[in-house]
Amino acid sequence: MTSRPITLSGTPEGPGSDSGLLTKTKSKTQRPPLYKVMLLNDDYTPMEFVVHVLERFFGLSHAQAFDIMLTVHKKGLAVVGVFSFEVAETKVAQVMDFARRHQHPLQCTMEKE
Ligand code: TYC
């Protein structure tokens, strides 16, 4: 078995035409859209129930949950988290189902960021 060195003579443009410049193609990676999950105020859902929902479904500490509940109570609504479409959809469904089962009118919605 014999082998000989491979010699490259020039570029596709021909020998001696290599400018030495390298070009790079920018591959545009698309980030998935994010969705804000919001809690809406109402006059009937007990404050402790809202705090419990925020702890249970959004993993917030008691203090964080209490703060957000008060923001919703005072301002009418607040963003409680930002998630992928699938996770946001699941959170909304879990909160709405939990509130309905406890017969509270609490509303939870999502919106593209
Ligand atoms: N406004 C309610 C009350 O006074 C408390 C409440 C807070 C309800 C946040 C809903 O998303 C909510 N009992």
Describe the structure.
The protein is α+β, with helices and mostly antiparallel strands and 113 residues long. Helices cover 38% and strands 17% of the residues. It is built from three helices and three strands; from the N terminus they run E-H-H-E-H-E. The protein has helices at residues 47-58, 62-75, 85-101, and strands at 35-40, 77-83, 107-112. Strands 2-1-3 form a three-stranded antiparallel β-sheet. Helix 1 (47-58) packs across helix 2 (62-75). The longest helix is centred in the last third of the chain and has 17 residues, at 85-101. The protein is elongated, with a radius of gyration of 28 Å. The model is unreliable at 1-14 (pLDDT under 50). Residues 39-43, 45-47, 50, 69, 72-73, 106 line the site of L-tyrosinamide.
Helix and strand topology:
Layout: E1 35-40, H1 47-58, H2 62-75, E2 77-83, H3 85-101, E3 107-112
Helix pairs in contact: 1-2
This protein binds L-tyrosinamide (TYC).
Biased composition (Polar residues): 1-10
GO molecular function: peptidase activity
Function: Involved in the modulation of the specificity of the ClpAP-mediated ATP-dependent protein degradation.
